[in-house]
Each structure stands twice: as structure tokens, then as C-alpha cells.
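Morning run. Coffee first, then this:
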Amino acid sequence: MQWSEQIVLVTGGTGSFGKKFCELMLADYHPKKLIIFSRDELKQHDMRASGFDHPSLRYFIGDVRDAQRLERAFSGVTVVVHAAALKQVPACEYNPFEAIQTNVIGAKNVIDAAINQGCRRILALSTDKAVNPINLYGASKLCAEKVFVQANAYAGAKDTRFSCARYGNVVGSRGSVIPMFLEQRKSGRVTITDPRMTRFWITLERGVRFVVRCIEQMRGGEIFIPKIPSMKLIDMAEAVAPGCELECIGIRSGEKLHEVLLSEDEARNAVETDDMYVVQPTHSWWQKGNWKQARALPEGFRYSSDTNPEWLTRDGLFALIEGSDGEATASGRSLTLIAGQSKVS
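And here it is:
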């Protein structure tokens, strides 16, 4: 792709992902135009005031629930990254209709607007919680994945293609458990749900660069999954809050002991490269010749956070944080300080 010729729009553009995506787009890819689409005027103002005021930037107020506004925003756009979503598990459980309106109906609206306006490549962000979901957030993201994959059939002969990128928890982001550990650290007591619990982890920058690569390589219909490390939450708590008392409070409603990024059933239609897995659609329109250079997965393969061959150590966590340059939030900056202190000690 020639990014300098693209008009790029990111929904949920004022969130953690959106900001890092815009930062890297402006620094490394230089699109002809970059549109921030979000519903909060204050966040757009704060984002512009913080330095995101490049001549190629445009700020659009709008909600993915508003199909007409999406139609107007997508006019002339060639690449869409769909990052807008309700992501907090408890909030989605308590407000199920709102979660469905944004995460499912919003995804449908993005699809319709992209097809009607002739956008070329549209990639939606998903989550490990979409695999065998046990909470509404995961279920809504699973629905979004399904409609995005099948949207390629709705596009028909048009040169409009849809794919998804699915990855795990983002280190230091606003939705991460790390800010909670940092706050609890002040009291000397940190709570964890279960000492056995594991999660996948990725930095914000790596997630953004993975999304960019997926857009460049997508044929339309794939679900892309990066190979990323796992870590036990108890190890993370001990690293972030050393010397604190650890209290196990039990697994909460809607939580899993371990997360899965690729299930056994999906693996039958998936292939792998050196650094990612690609779930191929099982629809008649999919060309079997796609991804022939990738390798088939063994029978019964499952990519789970507890059996992952790549694990984060305490030092590895701090290296990950320092490599991400304290990205996006105060929690990231605090962790960078903690990492520096640990080296001194």
C-alpha cells in the first residue's frame, strides 16, 4: 500500500489505540488525510491541544450508532480502522442494550457506510474475550467479528474488503488491570482474583503496528492474531506492587481463568506465519489460494494464555513497558518509573 495516497479514518479515534495509531500514522506513514471520528468533543479538543494538530488531521464528531453521520464521514475515505467500542466488562453487563447498540449495531453501520461509500479496506479491532465468550462484551465482539467477515459477501464485486485483528490485554492502557494495582499499591494491599489466572499482553505500539500490517496484507475475511506473551496476574501484581500484601478475592462474574486467542475449532481453518495466526473464513467466496505461504496448524491446536510457549518475566514486563515509552496513560509512565527503580535496587 502507498499510505501517502490513502485517506484514513479511525473510529474511536480519541481512545488509547486511536491516539497511538494517529501518532504512528503521522510519524511513519504520512497518509494524505487522517480523520479522527469520535463522539466526545472534549476529548477531541484535548487531543488537538496536546499536539495532534497536523495539517492532514480532521476531527469529526459522531457516533457509530448514527448511520447517516458515518455515511457523511466515510465519503472519500479509502481505509477505515474500526476501534470504537464499549470495552469495560462490568459496564457491558449492567448496560447490555447499550453494548449491543455500539458493538454490534455500530459494526453493521460501519459496514454499510463503507460499502456505500466505496472504502477499500476496513479492519475492526477485536479481543481474546470474543473466543468462547462468557460475558456480554465478548459476545458482542464475537458478533462484530462474524458480521465483519461476512460483510465481504455483501460487498460483492465492489473493491471493498473487511477483516479483523484480535489480540489480548494492552499493557498500561486505561482498561488494563495495571492502573488498579498501582492505586492499590498506595495502601500496601493488592487484590487478585485467582493466583492461577493468566492473560495475554501486548503493548499499544505493537498492537497498532500489527493492525497496520494486517491492513497491508489482508485479502478480506481474515481474523489476524499476533503471537504475544502471557503472564500470570499474580506475577504482574508482585512486579508492579513489590512488598505489598496480596489478597485473593475470587473470580468475578464474566471472568475466565485463562483467555484463548484461537480455539481448537477455529484452528482447523487457521494458518500461521512466524509472528501471527490467520483464521480463514469458511465461506464459498474465500479463495483457497490465499495465504498458501503460511503453515497449517496441528490437529487440536489451541492458543491459550496458560499453555502459551512465550511468557513474560518481571524483567520482561519492565522491558516491555520501557520499550513502549510509557505510552498513552499515567499508568504507563508510573510503570516506567517503577522499572527504573527496580534496576537501581
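The radius of gyration is 20 Å. Good start to the day.
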